[in-house]
Amino acid sequence: MQPNIDEFELPMLRMGSVTFLAGLIIILVSTMFHASREDSNNHPLVFAEYAASDPWIAAHIGQFAGVMFVFAGGFVALYRLHVRSKSGTASALAWLGLALTITAASTFAILQAVDGIALKRAVDSWTAAPPEERAAAFRVAEGIRWTEIGINSIFRILQGTVAVIFGVAIAIGAMLSRWIGVFGIFAGAATIVAGVGVAYVGFSSSLGVVGTVSTVMSFSWLGILGIFMWRKTMTKTNIR
After folding, report:
1. Rg (CA), the chain
2. Mean pLDDT confidence for 202-206
3. Which residues does residue 138 pair with via DSSP β-bridges, in sequence order?
4. Average pLDDT of 48-59?
5. What does residue 239 show for φ and ψ, rounded to 5 degrees?
6. Between the CA of residue 212 and those of 134, 206, 219, what are the distances in Å?
7. pTM to 2 decimals?
8. pLDDT of 13-43, one tens digit each?
9. How far apart are CA 31 and CA 46, in angstroms?
10. Cα distance between residue 226 and residue 22, in whole Å
């Protein structure tokens, strides 16, 4: 049986719920404006697509805002809820989860600066360059692309690790249903696998199934967290 919630836990549950759900919606809406028709590993085609995308920078700023809602609001709320847990293990995991949350959020900020701004400027410069300078401009854009891939890989690994750690904390604690924690562990593991895959093959189509599964599981978990954290606040008889 889950314990009653007190006056401290209630605002934390509400903040976590709202920021998880709001962040998820912002990410999904922003991603709708992300150009993604071409093969991501075919640099001439995909760079031309990115250069022609007017909403490119705005879409990445939107994704950045959504992820900050999730990490700075949702996971910080989970940390605050579990650091006061009667379980010493859950409390220790909350501290570790907070440290990795800060690291992951910082890494994502760098990723969006590289992908959303630096790469856009580079591909725009490449498409506008005179013929004798196009090869050099393309190499500059490609170098930024490799940097993006490296940061993307590390971010996914960190993101997955955050999910695994908080998933374990939820599973051994009593604030939320244990199955939610178990789901988070699997979602995090899939995201870590996807991150390692990006390190080796980039954004290759061969990573398609793994990448899709990890994304769907991660987004589903965020939605589940948001919904069930809010549902817990609606049970008035649970408030001490």
Report:
1. 20
2. 80
3. none
4. 96
5. -90, 125
6. 34, 11, 11
7. 0.91
8. 999 999 999 999 999 999 999 998 888 889 9
9. 16
10. 9
pLDDT of residue 4: 55
The two tokens of residue 88 are 């010493």
Q: Which two tokens stand for residue 237?
A: 């008889």
* CA distances in angstroms from 180 to 62, 152, 171, 223, 228, listed in the order given: 27, 26, 7, 11, 9
DSSP count for the chain of H helices, then E strands? 9, 0
Greatest Cα pair distance, the chain, in angstroms, is 73
Residue whose pair of structure tokens reads 């593991």 in the numeric block:
189
Q: Report residue 102 as tokens.
A: 């800060």
Q: Which amino acid is at 209?
A: V
What is the DSSP-derived secondary structure letter of residue 4?
A: P
Give residue-wise pLDDT tens across range 74-98.
999 999 888 877 778 888 999 999 9
Dihedral of the alpha carbons of 74, 80, 86, 90, in degrees to the nearest 10: 50
**Cα dihedral sign for 69, 72, 73, 77?**
positive
